[in-house]
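pinging the channel bc i need a second pair of eyes. not urgent but kinda urgent?? the chain im working w is below, pasted from the shared doc
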Amino acid sequence: MNQHRTIRQLRADAQAIFWAGIEAVDAQKAVARHLSLDDDGILRIGTHIRIPLSHFRRAFVVGAGKAAAPMAVAVEGVISSSLLPQGLVNVKYQHTSPRPRFVLLNECGHPLPDEAGVTGTREIERILDQLTESDLLFVVVSGGASALLPAPVPGISLEEKQYTTELLLRAGADIYELNAVRKHLSTLKGGQLALRANPATVVALVLSDVIGDNLEVIGSGLTVPDSSTFGDALNVLKKHSLLGVLPEAVMQRLMQGVRCEIAETPKENNSIPNVVHNFVVGSNRLAIESAVQAARALGYQPLVLSSTLQGETREVARVHVEILREVISTCNPVKPPACLLSGGETTVTVHGSGKGGRNQEFALTAAIAMSGLPNAVILAAGTDGTDGPTDAAGGIVDGTTGARAIRMGLSPADHLDRNDSYPILDALDDLFKTGSTGTNVMDLNIMLADGF
């Protein structure tokens, strides 16, 4: 009879599987896989695009995201033998490794934008405004780009835009809703970056952090036509009952847009005039596929539940636990030792004022639901290494987590009620901390079961 894995071993295996997924979507490697330079100076992008670098006088790199630094490094590594790139990318504070040799990094605020982000965006605008048809522009985009390129349109202050963003986040708006609003309050989003780069040739390299890898949504669609309208943005705010609390300038701009008094973002029917090549270089699905291989190598039967996971965090976490319970008790839909995997991005509707993030909330909810469940571990983490405004990527819990909390005089339910998952997971040593991972493809949930 095979000896069951200990909880300690299950925890170690879950972390190893997570890191295998991260390795597959390393931002620098992801760009390098899609970009190469022939000996004759032909830039190869993906499987079909070929661009002679001799056609260009200058090369620039701009963009934003938590993984923008390693993406810029990868671009430099490919083209610098033919064209020395210059430019600037906005990155989250302390997300500066590895550091490019030529392209400047500007550290700024995420998830809430700050003045440093505006300063960097204005510098990117200055670069865009000087481009000519003999220039090649690389745009590197990864998760967090929307908040990291926060420059508001004239008439709206950063504070007013910050307040609007905070209201949407606290109301539980999803990434699609959040970006529909931000596109219409910003200078570069919704295709406006590519339009402003005209007549330069644009190559956008995108690390997807959204469900379905929709280029309109990733980074608020900097280089693609925008299908959302001022009316859509207004409807998002109506849905979340925010019209009565919005800053006056925000309401005025949206109403002007609805009345066609100001220009819409670029649409498909009056498409961006310059040549723009958009490439998704990495995604959550790719990370999950690598995690599957790692789980199988460790002796688990892997089963992918979804790579497009969304919904209210607590509800999704409880469903995951019930599937895990079914695996352990009936060997369905897969026989233990089993590894259930899911990815995507859930949403937390904030009711309290505690500290945490959606992955920590997922882990704490799961810990309560799986209390007493033997031979099982759940790891929920953001692939970028950051979960909400904390230094943790997420949490890793098991069937003993709830009991250990109670023995310490802590109430998991009370902490969950006030959205305060970080302190209790920290006290239990159940936080999962990775530091910056150099990528960002939403979240990974890894559930291991070893049966009875």
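so The mean pLDDT is 94. and The CA atoms of residues 266 and 363 lie 41 Å apart. — does that match what u expected or am i reading it wrong
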